[in-house]
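Working notes for the structural subgroup meeting. M.R. asked for a predicted model of this chain before we commit to crystallization trials. I am recording the input and output together here so anyone reviewing the notebook later can reproduce the run.

Input as submitted:
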Amino acid sequence: MDPSPRTHRRGFVRSAVAGTILMPGLLHELLAAEAAGDPLAPRPSHFPVKAKAVIFLFMSGGVSHVDSFDPKPRLAADHGKKVTFDHPETRNRAGYESLYLKRPGWAGSPRGKSGIEVTDLFPCIGEQVDDIALIRSMHTSHSNHYNATLGMHTGSFAFARPSIGSWLSYGLGTTNRNLPSFLVLAPQMPYAGTQVWASDFLPAVHQGTRVVPGAEPIADLARRVPTSRRQELELDALRALNEDHLRDRADDSNLSARIRSFETAFGMQAEVPGALDLAAESDATLDLYGLRRGQTDGFGWQCLAARRLVERGVRFVELIHTGSSGNWDSHGDMADHGKLAPQVDRPIAGLIRDLKARGLLDSTLVVWTTEFGRTPFNNTPYNRGREHHNWAFSSWLAGAGVKRGIVHGATDEHGIRVAENPVHVHDFHATILHLMGLDHTRLTYRHGGRDYRLTDVHGNVVKELLA
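Returned structure, recorded in token form:
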């Protein structure tokens, strides 16, 4: 007995798309509704800006601000001094009844023409400090990795919400339909997992697509049929079946989305391999990022791939260094910072130099951050590590629309609390959206009977950072 038309169609779909790369957003909902139009079509910003793309550099685990971008000579001088306060990471914790200041492990020195102090932990980034707007007064609402990581990406510290990359994709669309608008280059799964790049209640087409550095950055990208022409014929046949199917189901708003998903996936097969192939890059460029020819992993690969992706119109590229283990969470020994820093220092400095040399820094916003800082103290002055510290940490911006060679905000003499011009994560997000031409109070989405936004009901643009 012949299979039913519905069964036959399902089998044909499996055959036709077996070798394509259909990111989850494209599979489930390329369009929220056909009547709503194309959700990835380029849309005008709320006001004109130069920035067209974001490269978001996330250092997972909590980089110590006092050992990197906020040197504290007084902390070194007062090493071993007893301090008293109610800190969330030491409260009611056995062995932490007394707290003592702990000296930095790396010395700071003035860098560049601006004279901004950066420690020896990041010497290469320090050389680029004249292109950076450094924020020394960051603070966040949680001291746990999961919550702080979720908050840095979604503005929510307790519940799943759309990622900042998803919000930018939703607000601005994309200029290249053959590539996702939001890509995440992550060798390992971070704290908070896929929620870091999820679209949540936004149309699923806006969620991030994960790329894993290595020989096969995106699985199943190569087609399984012998020729491109045969795949085109199969997709044409599939489209005809879908359109015939749609004529009898005019109220099915997702069917047109699925039809487009096959077309977009086919375009990705053509463009993604070239975007992630570094073979055409010169030896000088590879050296800039600290790469060997043929290398397909490491943070240098992530940085150079990010440059190639924004060149091709990808709206938001996030680079996650390490993941939920083996990261910057140096409880036991701050010497771990010294092992991790060389993995990212040269590549990040190389990225800024490369973007600037190609004229891309004027249209690309580079963001460097971590989820929180680390305590300038510990339970003994000789404890080699530092604990989580959400009261104060450092982040920085560079590129399109950003003032260069400046410091905004300050912590106290020991780096314990923000002393001047505090910048909460909500303010950070509001500023990033502003630099991309979006008013954070107007970028909203109706869900569950209320209008949601990345900054919830908070956030102020830090105007002092704007060029």
